[in-house]
Amino acid sequence: MTSKRLGRTQDPTILVLVSLSGGPKHGYAVIKDIEAMSGVSFGPGTLYGVLARLEEEGLVEPLPADGPRRPYRITGTGAAVLRARLEITVKVAEVAFKRLGELGALGA
Fold this sequence. Notes:
The chain is mostly helical. It is built from four helices and two strands, in the order αααββα.
């Protein structure tokens, strides 16, 4: 079940960081990894816009090109930022699941 009003709730920035937390990847591999783990697909324009912002913030870094492809990897700072964000997300999700369970018990 999905809601059109909620739209795409997956943050592309977080998805890219999660993908790169599994190891260095080039753009196409990041796109495919994100699709496999979340069902979210976006194009190269979105990906490279996100990568540029993350690189500017020091959260990812490009590696030497492997032929025509340039892989990226998450930095230590990027991993710390991702961990902090995920911890908040987990707390919010735990509260939400608890509340949904309480609503279900009330017959709502």
